[in-house]
Amino acid sequence: MDDIRLLIDLFKGKLRQGPGGEAETVMAVELAGIDRGVPLAIADIGCGTGASTLALASLLNAHITAVDFLQDFLDVLESRAQSVGVADRIDTLCASMEDLPFVAEAFDVIWSEGAIYNMGFQKGVADWRNYLKPGGLLVVSELTWLTGTRPAEIQRYWDSIYPEIDLASAKIRMLEQSGYAPLGYFALPEQCWRENYYHPLQTGFGDFLERNGSSGGALAVVEEQQREIALYERYKSYYGYGVYIARRVG
Ligand code: SAM
């Protein structure tokens, strides 16, 4: 099995594919000042199996276009939406976040949790701005240094995986320079990484290896995840996910 099939197999049974939490999605809705009664068009980009999509569909009077480039994740999202009774408020779209088929100014809100790194924060916020109505809201979570300096081991690790990792102040400046007015920022609490993301992932490693005959590829996937988790446990005071909320200006 190639790497992408292995990653789909590891992640598709999980409620989320990255750090986050329902309470934190609610907090971002509140910080953004979104009126729960007003009808909204929302795009949730890099939605995975739909943790944030389903929370937004339940909370808001919204129609949500849930975008991911993996149909397997969208299939899970659709069946979860059916089972919680919000399927009529969600359309799924299998597309690349770098080549979205939207018309300009299509959405009131663009939401993206733990996904913009796939195209890079700077390019993502600039490109996606075109799909927001003037005055529309961007809510995006992004890997972020929490302190001005940090140990060399963790600096090297994230520089090699995601060189765009930076301080919140730098991300906020980027938003300001890309035609947004920042409205808020908070760092996801540890439980969004540990209880909500890493623990469910770890409990699935055994079954994942069994399903995949403990192949070299499957073992490598688990080792890589375990390395990331061990580094998080060691260095979690230095980095996290920042949630950025901004309004399109102009
Ligand atoms: N938002 C979900 C969550 O928080 O649980 C998923 C986060 S997961 C870390 C990143 C998601 O982005 C995955 O579902 C992945 O399939 C999707 N993705 C990665 N590259 C993409 C691309 N170029 N276009 C669209 N989706 C992409």
TrEMBL record:
UniProt GO molecular function: methyltransferase activity
All residue ranges annotated as the Methyltransferase domain in the record: 42-136
Gene Ontology BP terms: methylation
Keyword Methyltransferase: yes
Ranges that cross the membrane: none
Keyword set, alphabetical order: Methyltransferase, Transferase
Signal peptide: none
The keyword Methyltransferase is assigned to this record: yes
Highest taxon in the source lineage: Bacteria
PANTHER family, sorted: METHYLTRANSFERASE, SLR1117 PROTEIN
Name of this chain's protein: Methyltransferase domain-containing protein
The species this protein was found in: Parahaliea maris
